[in-house]
Specification:
CATH topology of the largest domain: UDP-N-acetylmuramoyl-L-alanine:D-glutamate ligase
CATH architecture of the largest domain: 3-Layer(aba) Sandwich
Radius of gyration: 23 Å
Number of domains: 3
Largest sheet: 10 strands, mixed
Distance between the termini: 55 Å
Number of strands: 23
Strand order of the largest sheet: 8-7-9-6-12-13-14-15-16-17
Number of helices: 13
Shape: globular
């Protein structure tokens, strides 16, 4: 099946739109924004569950359960094809036969919402969601009414998308491929004028064959910037600096090194949680301010965000002052609750670098309701991504948990289609951690892990649960079990 490339465009007059794969967080946000613009919006997906099912229902958006050619009747003016849709999807095949104009999600975002605005794109293997949210939130609180698309739900306002009337659009620049008919990274469509490149490491083994393929993807971001744009690059990373050499525009570095234009001079735990940062600007001004986020990696994210805010027109001192009231993002060091004297925290970390930085941040900086030294840090990890379920990082994960006091691991779910030699082994990781002097244990499933956790946890502990998936609702079940 081949879609007609000539139809990969939006018609001039549009009154009705159909979204294939509408239940994704980004697709659902896009659907709601298009509905608020007065379009007739409908979509299709596999059976949905809260919160997306209720989100779309509250908006009055009709969602067909499952994919079928009949979902394209009556004929919409435009179809937006989500990243989840594959070439052999029956609805995609019907789209090709019907000859309806179509766009990918990134194309639709650029066409309807970025348009002629100043696009601030945040890209990199790590830190995209948090940094995008910091910039969007700061611009909102500064009264500049930005548009934005964030890959997570911001805790202030409970939103990840806004169609602001201001001059800026802030977007998370995902390096994942655009759609089955466009294998380029999503960020090439976002018309970047200011871009942040936070890191460049191997990830997404399902679409990138090797590190060279990842490098080529991020090179596309650098070359997409116009000559009068700006690239903010993490100056402590040789990989990032190598990508920055492809840019035609000015490049400003940020980081901890002596040569970084925006230099993070210090990051220390703040008394009420978060961090006290000291940052020197390119003009030599030293900013001493509070960030609500814990950890050195978040200090770097905040430094990059401040640089982007200054590029957007804010005074450096104003950009820094806004950081104390940033509300955070769901699933990024999110405190889910306290029960039985145990603080339960949810985090999206899955790449070994992200796991290491998250564990170190919580252990060294603490979180609201738990200070370093108050109790044990119990780290719980589920390898669920296409990359972490494979053995690519088997050895790298062994050093990611060094700051934890106890480690509980679940064997990766859904690996039946992988050859045994290709699968990540949590049991092997537990053995490696024990050899490093850590108490660690692996469990076959979440039920056994939950039972062991409930027996082990005690008042004063912080239980840090890391997964990019739902982890079988482990957080809520853990809180309930501790309470009983």
């Amino acid at each position: 099946m081949q879609l007609d490339p000539a139809l990969n465009t939006a018609p001039e007059h549009i009154s009705s739109v159909h979204l294939m794969g509408i239940g994704g967080v980004a697709m659902g946000a896009l659907a709601g924004a298009l509905k608020r613009r007065g379009l007739l919006v409908r979509g299709s997906d596999q059976p949905l569950y809260p919160p997306m099912s209720t989100f779309l229902a509250d908006l009055g958006i009709q969602v067909a359960q499952g994919y079928d050619a009949a979902n394209l009747e009556p004929r919409p003016d435009l179809v937006i094809v989500g990243n989840v849709i594959r070439r052999d999807n029956p609805e995609a095949m019907a789209l090709a036969a019907a000859g309806i104009p179509y766009l990918s999600l990134p194309q639709a975002l650029a066409r309807f919402f970025i348009a002629q605005k100043t696009s601030i794109v945040v890209a990199g293997t790590h830190g995209k969601t948090t940094t995008t949210a910091i910039i969007a939130s700061s611009l909102m609180r500064a009264g500049l009414d930005p548009g934005f698309m964030v890959g997570g739900i911001m805790l202030e306002g409970g939103q990840n998308f806004a169609d602001g009337a201001g001059a800026h659009f802030v977007v998370e620049g995902d390096e994942y491929d655009t759609a089955f008919f466009d294998k380029r990274p999503k960020f090439v469509h976002y018309r970047p004028r200011v871009a942040i490149l936070s890191s460049c490491e191997f990830d997404h083994a399902d679409i990138y064959a090797d590190m060279d393929a990842v490098r080529r993807a991020f090179d596309m971001l650098a070359t997409a910037l116009p000559a009068d744009g700006l690239l903010l690059a993490w100056g402590d990373s040789p990989e990032v600096l190598a990508r920055a050499r492809s840019a035609r525009c000015p490049v400003l570095t940020y980081g901890q090194g002596d040569n970084c234009a925006w230099r993070l001079l210090a990051a220390r735990p703040a008394p009420q949680g978060g961090a006290r940062l000291r940052v020197r600007t390119p003009a030599g001004l030293e900013l001493d301010f509070i960030s609500s986020l814990a950890g050195e990696h978040n200090a770097l994210n905040t430094t990059a965000a401040c640089a982007a805010l200054v590029a957007a027109g804010l005074e450096p001192a104003r950009a820094a002052a806004l950081q104390a009231s940033f509300g955070g993002v769901r699933r990024r060091q999110e405190v889910r609750g306290r029960s039985g004297g145990v603080l339960v925290v949810d985090d999206f970390a899955h790449h070994p670098t992200a796991v290491r930085e998250t564990v170190a941040a919580v252990k060294g900086f603490g979180l609201p309701g738990w200070r370093p030294g108050q109790g044990r840090l119990v780290a719980v990890f589920e390898p669920r991504t296409n990359t972490s379920k494979r053995a690519f990082f088997q050895d790298e994960y062994a050093s990611a948990f060094d700051r934890a006091d106890l480690v509980f691991l679940r064997e990766p779910p859904g690996v039946e289609d992988l050859a045994p030699a290709e699968r990540f082994s949590s049991a092997r990781l537990a053995q490696a951690l024990v050899r490093r002097g850590l108490a660690a244990q692996a469990y076959a499933d979440s039920e056994a892990l939950l039972e062991a956790l409930l027996q082990e946890l005690r008042p004063g502990d912080l239980c840090l649960v890391m997964s990019n998936g739902g982890f079988d609702n482990l957080h809520a079940r853990l809180l309930a079990g501790l309470g009983s």
